[in-house]
């Protein structure tokens, strides 16, 4: 097997740290580029380059003359970011692999389970994250069509893992455990029955590692997710099973939550109110090693272990926000009951 020299732009995030670990296990030569604000214990078998990718001129100078078999870009969020990567490595990389997102699928969806080639790209600027990622993909598709260099695009779905700060409807993380243990209600959007497949970072990393140097992935776009069918309520129910305490869950429309805090809840309204079940046939055909095997129960146990060993901190502001939202829900219920509507 040929040893690949792989550059990771990022390298210490929830997903990218797993990519680095799996590349090292596979015996690949790994180089990490990031700002150097976080240094993980990967050992001495890799090279670190520190810099700021947003300083495009400095970034290009740092990378000048360096050759890589593959560059995995985990830190491009818009077309300008992606253009910087393309322009920097057009003549010095054998392949570029970009991390996008399933948020780029335009809602309502046309397929279920979702198939890559059946969907259109998101086009509503009101949900900035999805729109900018879709703009990035539109730019990259133009580069692909021009045949400038091999590009692969991988779209993760909602992914959890050690180091994550995105678990829960309020992205409240350890607060979920805290609230269940203390008998406090948890806020869920909608009625909690929207289908979803929750993915964990060690599984997702297999997609990026399997794409590196893989000519079958050149010029193609894939999503890479778990295929275990759950609904959103299961996220809290499963935590309750692990803790041995039945959680108290209250439900509120995603539209009202978004009005309370568009920045925090916009993704629920624009993306997660629709089914999140994916058909992974395409990626499995080109990357046979990709298979998501971590169940929701096993993944949440991993998260609980991490919380209790390293990250057992309550976010007081989010705890107060959840208290206020659930109390508003209770008041709303009492007001409706008081109407005593008779038909």
From TrEMBL:
<comment type="similarity">
    <text>Belongs to the NAD(P)-dependent epimerase/dehydratase family.</text>
</comment>
<protein>
    <submittedName>
        <fullName>NAD-dependent epimerase/dehydratase family protein</fullName>
    </submittedName>
</protein>
<feature type="domain" description="NAD-dependent epimerase/dehydratase">
    <location>
        <begin position="6"/>
        <end position="217"/>
    </location>
</feature>
<dbReference type="Pfam" id="PF01370">
    <property type="entry name" value="Epimerase"/>
</dbReference>
<dbReference type="InterPro" id="IPR001509">
    <property type="entry name" value="Epimerase_deHydtase"/>
</dbReference>
<dbReference type="InterPro" id="IPR036291">
    <property type="entry name" value="NAD(P)-bd_dom_sf"/>
</dbReference>
